[in-house]
Each structure stands twice: as C-alpha cells, then as structure tokens.
Amino acid sequence: MEKSSIRRAIVLLSGGLDSATVLACAIREGFECRTLAFRYGQRHTVELEAASHLSKELGAVEHRVMDIDLSALGGSSLTGQGEVPKGRSETEIGGGIPSTYVPARNTVFLALGLAWAEVVEATHLYIGVNAVDYSGYPDCRPEFIQAFERMANFATKMGTEGPGVHVVAPLQKLSKSEIIRLGMSMGVDYSLTRSCYDPDPRGAPCLGCDSCQLRLAGFHEAGHEDPLLPLFGLTTP
Amino acid sequence: MEKSSIRRAIVLLSGGLDSATVLACAIREGFECRTLAFRYGQRHTVELEAASHLSKELGAVEHRVMDIDLSALGGSSLTGQGEVPKGRSETEIGGGIPSTYVPARNTVFLALGLAWAEVVEATHLYIGVNAVDYSGYPDCRPEFIQAFERMANFATKMGTEGPGVHVVAPLQKLSKSEIIRLGMSMGVDYSLTRSCYDPDPRGAPCLGCDSCQLRLAGFHEAGHEDPLLPLFGLTTP
After folding, report:
1. pLDDT band at residue B91, thresholds of 50, 70 and 90?
2. ipTM score of complex
3. Considering the entire predicted model, what is its pTM?
4. Of the residues A18, A112, A172, B13, which has the fewest C-beta atoms closer than 10 A?
C-alpha cells in the first residue's frame, strides 16, 4: 500500500472504558492508529498502564505517553490535594461542574494530539467524550468538539494547505450502556480498562467514586457483569 | 481592592521581543499579570532565562515555566536534529511554512495558558503573534486567534458559566519596527529580550537566522540600535 493511501488517526487513550471503545471504532474504520496518553499529575498511574496494554491489544501501531505538569497549575481534586467525592447520586453526578474537573483538560489533550497528528500526517483525531461525561464538564459537549475542529483547521498546515483535520467523537451521543454494548460487539476486553478515580494500591476500583458508579450502572443497564470485578475478587454491589 | 474587581491576565512570555512588548501592553491596561513560559524541547534555554527576568522587570505578579515534551513528537528543526536555516532573504522568510515550525505550538501554548487562566480566574489571555511572525505559520493568523477564543469559550467554566475568555493579540497587525516603537514608548528594555534561534554558548545572537534577521531589520526600520548587541560586543552588520 502506498504511503498516501494509508489513512492515519491519533486516538487519545486514557486507559478507561470510553477511550478503549473509541480505539476499537477507529481500528474498525480502517485507520492506522497511534495512541496518546498523558501523565498529567494524576494521583495514580493504573490508568496509564491500562492504556499501554489496550493500545497493543486492540492493534494500534504506536503508543506514546506525554508528560504535562497540569498539577503545577492547581485547581482540581484529581491532580491536587482535595478529596475525590464518593457515593454521590446520579442527579448529583449530572448536576454542575464537579471538583474532579481539570481545567481545560480536553483542550490541552486535543492540542497535543493535534501536534502529533500533524507530524505523522494523521487527518483524524479521536476522543472518547460522551453524553454521560458531559455531566457538567464543558469540554465534553458537541459544541466544544466542533469549535476545536474548526480552530484546528486554522491552526495547522494540514488544515490550511492539506487535507484538513477531523475531530471524531464517536461516543458523543451514547449512554454508558450503549458504549459498553458497542465495545462488546467489537470484541473489546473491558477487563483491560480502568475507570476508578481512586483505586487501591492493587489497582482495584473503589466502586464509590463518580466514575466507578457510572461504570457499574452502565454494565448493569447493558445486562453484563463488569469483567474487571472478578479480577479483584469483587462483585457488583 | 476587592478580589472581584481585580482584572487578571495570563501572558504567554517566551523571552523574545514580541511577548515582552505584549506583557507591557497588558500591564498598561491595568491587568494583574501572570506570565507563562514553556520548556518544550528547545535546543537552548537562553530565552527561558530572559522570560523570567522580563516577567519581574515589567511587573508581573507570578512567573511559571511548564515542561512539555513536544520534541517527543518530532517534526521541527527547533526541537529536533535539523539545521536552523540561515541567511535567508525576507522573501524566503515570508514564503511558505519554514522548517522551524513546531506543530500546533500556539494551540498547545494557548491551551495551557487557558488552563491556568481558569484556575486563577483570569479572563484575558495575551499572546504575541504578529503580522511578521505570520510568515508561513498558520497559528499566527488572526483567524486562528479568533477560532481559538471561540473554542475556549465552549471549553471552560469561565466561558459557559462565567465572564467569558478573551484572547488578546495586540501586535497582530504591527510590523516588527512598529512593535519596537510601541515597546520603547512603554519603556521596555529590549536588551533583556532574546530572539535568536541559534545563540552561541554565551547567549549571543547568531545574526543569521530568520528571527535575528527580522529583529535586525525591525530595529533598523524603527531607527534604533538593538540594545542587545553592545552587551555582546556586536554591532549591526
């Protein structure tokens, strides 16, 4: 196959359930995929190890981890000293911007993905934002993704002189259970994914934080057991 | 003065002539300024030392340097192994995207500036792009700045629930000589700024790279001697 006929994509891969599903979508679309994860001052790196395994397992050609010290800027319980909220109801999770919000995170991650895309001539940039994640995060909304894509086409050689840049968010309108069904239909092994904001030292999920709760509810609604739980001797609460 | 009446700005400060002038503009507008520089795999750090001095000298309240490993993504002679082009004519400098282009650089820098802006509740984000810098860099054009501002308002709490985000590029339509005259009228000491892509070990400018040539031509046209030259025993070639 000639170089020019290869369609390349950069996939932002956190190691969570959503971005693993997104990588499977991009692979299914026929893209040669490169995956990008970020070490940005998280309190744990379980997710990063998961991202590296998932990238290989799902068939990406390259995985990179970039360091960015977002914690130097402060402002979030995910990277700072605050407590991760636990045991909140779905209404609470869905209402307002939570304290785990990392300022401008998706803007920063997409910007770095865009830089790599330009270097390897990838025309597509995949990100796993979705309707549930919206839950108060402004940078998970469709309007944000559209505005980023528009900006990216002004920002780059690809946009101004080349084939253009596409920001793809295939989960945007899916609920967590729909995402899980979609991933399972593509054979994604969700036992390789990690979602918890506050895992124990073994990497076991806390089952209490917002992210664990959304994941539990998603598997429940999809009619599946989360394959991650038996790995740690856990069952659905 | 009450907290709410303080107007805050983040100023991207490279240590070069343009961003020093921008900081002086933001200070003159009455903003409480925080300056942000990046260690992104440049081959030299003369600029970074200059940024730190300039921040204090011009009256910013805080200066931070963020590490981002853009060189891990490759793709530019500023951060990679290629040669910095020397002795190019103004037509060559103005035509096409030069090899010193760092992919999506201003997008990445503005995104990180936006993150800090959100943390400290700064409504204004200053950047020193200008008409001359355009010279083939897509992310120095007014259309890019406007598209970034629009995106930033979708991306953040400030944009969606707060006072909005403004991306200010006060040099956008000025030539290098106009920038120099503006800065001198505000008392900017340009001997503290560094512009060279390829300084010698003492930090002296090479006078041959695109950036040195634009600076030399700018001072010439403004009718001033570059105050940096005597510091290194140099004179205008």
Report:
1. low
2. 0.87
3. 0.88
4. A172
